[in-house]
């Protein structure tokens, strides 16, 4: 598995929708959706910083490492 993106969990906890978060962060709905659905191959630190700022969380609340052997 590798890195898992738990953005959908944090968005639900903060009760914020995709369109609203995308607007606040300054990225497209499509790009945020790709990240949210674990399809992203990379994320810019500036984007991660903006997401954390808007969701009042830490990067570790969004990104999780899962050992592929488990």
How would you portray this structure in words?
The chain has a single domain (2-57), classed as lambda repressor-like DNA-binding domains (434 Repressor (Amino-terminal Domain)). The protein starts with a strand and ends with a strand. With 70 residues, it is mostly helical. It is 56% helix and 11% strand. It is globular, with a radius of gyration of 12 Å. It is built from five helices and two strands. A two-stranded antiparallel sheet has the order 1-2.
Total strands: the figure is: 2
Oligomer: single chain
When the domains are counted, the total is: 1
Radius of gyration over C-alpha positions, nearest whole angstrom: 12 Å
CATH fold group: 434 Repressor (Amino-terminal Domain)
CATH class: Mainly Alpha
> SSE order in H/E notation?
EHHHHHE
Largest sheet properties: 2 strands, antiparallel
- Overall residue-averaged pLDDT value: 94
- The gross shape turns out to be globular
- Total helical elements: 5
Q: What fraction strand? A: 5-15%
Q: Structural class of the helices, strands and pairings?
A: mainly alpha
Give me the side-by-side strand order of the main sheet. 1-2
CA(first)-CA(last) distance: 9 Å
Low-confidence stretches: none
- CATH architecture descriptor name: Orthogonal Bundle
Q: What name goes with the CATH superfamily? A: lambda repressor-like DNA-binding domains
Question: Topology, pairings included?
Answer:
Layout: E1 2-5, H1 7-14, H2 18-25, H3 29-36, H4 45-55, H5 59-62, E2 63-66
Antiparallel strand pairs: 1-2
Helix pairs in contact: 2-3
Domain HTH cro/C1-type: 7-62
GO molecular function: DNA binding
InterPro entries: Cro/C1-type_HTH, Lambda_DNA-bd_dom_sf
